[in-house]
Automatic annotation (TrEMBL):
<dbReference type="InterPro" id="IPR011174">
    <property type="entry name" value="ERM"/>
</dbReference>
<dbReference type="Pfam" id="PF00373">
    <property type="entry name" value="FERM_M"/>
</dbReference>
<feature type="binding site">
    <location>
        <position position="287"/>
    </location>
    <ligand>
        <name>a 1,2-diacyl-sn-glycero-3-phospho-(1D-myo-inositol)</name>
    </ligand>
</feature>
<dbReference type="GO" id="GO:0042995">
    <property type="term" value="C:cell projection"/>
</dbReference>
<feature type="binding site">
    <location>
        <begin position="68"/>
        <end position="71"/>
    </location>
    <ligand>
        <name>a 1,2-diacyl-sn-glycero-3-phospho-(1D-myo-inositol)</name>
    </ligand>
</feature>
<dbReference type="InterPro" id="IPR029071">
    <property type="entry name" value="Ubiquitin-like_domsf"/>
</dbReference>
<dbReference type="InterPro" id="IPR018979">
    <property type="entry name" value="FERM_N"/>
</dbReference>
<feature type="domain" description="FERM">
    <location>
        <begin position="14"/>
        <end position="304"/>
    </location>
</feature>
<keyword id="KW-1003">Cell membrane</keyword>
<dbReference type="GO" id="GO:0005886">
    <property type="term" value="C:plasma membrane"/>
</dbReference>
<dbReference type="InterPro" id="IPR011993">
    <property type="entry name" value="PH-like_dom_sf"/>
</dbReference>
<dbReference type="InterPro" id="IPR000798">
    <property type="entry name" value="Ez/rad/moesin-like"/>
</dbReference>
<dbReference type="InterPro" id="IPR000299">
    <property type="entry name" value="FERM_domain"/>
</dbReference>
<dbReference type="Pfam" id="PF00769">
    <property type="entry name" value="ERM_C"/>
</dbReference>
<dbReference type="InterPro" id="IPR041789">
    <property type="entry name" value="ERM_FERM_C"/>
</dbReference>
<keyword id="KW-0472">Membrane</keyword>
<dbReference type="InterPro" id="IPR019749">
    <property type="entry name" value="Band_41_domain"/>
</dbReference>
Length: 552
């Protein structure tokens, strides 16, 4: 067979791009493929078995449509583009996510889609609930909170809160991160699938969760209403209130739904009840509403029947998988705990090692300081020893000086005592000399008086002798050539002899007075010399006392 023949037998294909919430995939499809063929290819690529919740959505002329499974892809009104883009999204929502979502991939796709709807404000959520949901989203993405790893600012690039909430409260990004982190820290030990399931369990209780809204009119007067289709039934809302329905039809209470052109009719199971009719803007809208109603009703009835073999097997596998994951998570938690304990022990050992190294370093530094101090002390000891020797020498010299000073002091005291004694003796001598001087002065006065009396007597005797001479020897006057000595040489009478004796006594007295006066002058001179010596000695002693005081 030729190569040209092989090329002719190859089927024609077209390219499609499948966009999931977090990924994009491209496939080559045969021209004859139906919507189910493409859908099954995508589900196999994703490993998805719970296919009944999902569909392929495309947008044409601003309206969202779902790819029909029983018609060829190219025969449907799809965008004319290459590759053709489809969004793989959840078309129907479970009533209870924890019971119906069996596969982890199914749960993960629902989590991503519901999270996007909340952030895009397609599902209203209160600010408090958004913070809690954001904390579970962070737990699913980052795992357990670690303050050493998850430092402030680690959520700066994550979109976690709707813009409406950010506008409503004037809080900084750091404040929102602090609020989310406070909840995030409490989710420690929760695995990723558990965090996503907790997120969905909170989201399924929101009023707008899983509801597809369509604008309708209750009559031809075009009263604006909203029709909502979800897993529990059909709900009628006012145009400005998507939370509380004005009227609801549960799937179990609906007997039939049909449309004719733009009119859609809901017939209750109770035949007496009023038939509800409404009008849509386009025929396509009625077809889409009917399609969603049929799918949700089938799932509603399916949940209330015995599970098929496939569902039972899937639930059994899900239970086994959950048990296995639980054991695995427990094992991982135990290993993580052991690892954390080991890390803490390691950190403690490292801290202890660092502490010991620090202590050793401090000890080495202390040893070096001790050695330096020891060397310094040795030098100081040597200096102190030399100083001690010097002090000992000085002490010995001081002791010798002290002994000398004591001896000197004793000598000084003895000399002082002797000097004082000499001074007292000098004072006594001076007193005696004064007394003797007074006595001598008195005696000299008496002697002077006696001398004066003697001279007076001598004069009187001479006068008397002259008078007698004149009377007895008148010729003595005429012959003056004879001297009294000649007369004394002659033998005078008794009176003249007495006069000569008297003269001798006066001379002797005068000589004695002169000798005593000379003796007194000699003694006075000696006494003055002695006083000068005593003054010199006292002055020398005073100088020695002053020098002794300075030494001490």
């Amino acid at each position: 067979m030729s190569i040209r023949g092989l090329k002719k037998k190859q089927p024609k294909t077209f390219k499609v791009k499948i966009i999931t919430v977090d990924a994009e995939m491209e496939f080559s499809c045969e021209m004859k493929w139906k919507g189910k063929d493409l859908f099954d290819l995508v589900c196999r690529a994703l490993g998805l078995r719970e296919t009944w919740f999902f569909g392929l959505q495309y947008t044409i002329k601003g309206m969202c449509n779902w790819l029909k499974m029983d018609k060829k892809v190219l025969d449907q009104e799809i965008p004319k583009e290459d590759p053709i883009s489809f969004h793989f999204l959840a078309k129907f929502y479970p009533e209870k996510v924890e019971e119906e979502l069996l596969q982890e991939i199914t749960q993960h796709l629902f989590f991503l889609q519901v999270k996007k709807q909340i952030l895009d404000e397609e599902i209203y959520c209160s600010p408090e609930a958004t913070v809690l949901l954001a904390s579970y989203a962070v737990q699913a993405k980052y795992g357990d909170y670690d303050p050493n790893f998850h430092e402030p600012g680690f959520l700066a690039h994550d979109e976690l809160l709707p813009k409406r909430v950010l506008r409503q409260y004037q809080l900084t990004a750091e404040m929102w991160e602090e609020k989310i982190t406070a909840w995030y820290a409490e989710h420690r030990g929760i695995a990723r699938d558990e965090a996503e399931m907790n997120y969905l369990k909170i989201a399924q209780d929101l009023e707008m969760y899983g509801v597809n809204y369509f604008p309708i009119a209750q009559n031809k007067n075009h009263t604006d209403l909203l029709l909502g289709v979800d897993a529990k039934g059909i709900h009628i809302y006012s145009i400005n209130n998507r939370f509380s329905p004005n009227k609801s039809f549960e799937w179990s209470a609906i007997r039939n739904i049909s449309y004719s052109e733009k009119e859609l009719t809901i017939k209750p199971l109770d035949k007496k009840a009023e038939v509800f009719k409404f009008f849509s803007s386009q025929l396509k809208v009625n077809k889409l509403i009917l399609q969603l109603c049929i799918g949700n009703h089938d799932l509603f009835m399916r949940r209330r029947k015995v599970d098929s073999i496939e569902i039972q097997q899937m639930k059994a596998q899900a239970r086994e998988e959950k048990a296995r994951k639980k054991m695995e998570n427990q094992r991982l938690a135990r290993e993580k705990q052991l690892r954390e304990e080991a890390e803490r022990a390691k950190e403690e050992l490292e801290r202890r090692l660092f502490q010991l190294e620090d202590e050793a370093r401090q000890a080495n530094e202390a040893l070096l300081r001790s050695q330096e101090a020891a060397e310094l002390l040795a030098e100081k000891a040597q200096i102190a020893e030399e100083e001690a020797k010097l002090l000992a020498q000085n002490a010995a010299e001081a002791e010798q000086e002290r002994q000398r000073l004591e001896i000197t002091a004793l000598k000084t005291k003895e000399e002082k005592r002797l000097m004082e004694q000499k001074m007292r003796e000098a004072e006594l001598i001076a007193v005696k000399l004064v007394k003797e001087s007074d006595r001598r002065a008195k005696e000299a006065e008496h002697l002077k008086q006696d001398l004066h009396e003697a001279r007076e007597a001598e004069r009187k005797a001479k006068q008397k002798l002259l008078d007698i001479t004149r009377l007895n020897y008148p010729h003595m006057v005429k012959y003056p050539q004879y001297s009294p000595a000649d007369a004394r040489d002659a033998n005078f009478d008794k009176g003249s002899i007495k006069l000569d004796l008297k003269d001798i006594d006066l001379k002797r007295l005068s000589f004695e007075i002169e000798r005593e006066r000379l003796d007194y002058l000699e003694k006075s001179r000696k006494f003055e010399d002695r006083l000068k010596e005593l003054k010199s000695e006292i002055h020398a002693l005073k100088l020695e006392e002053k020098q002794s005081g300075l030494y001490s």
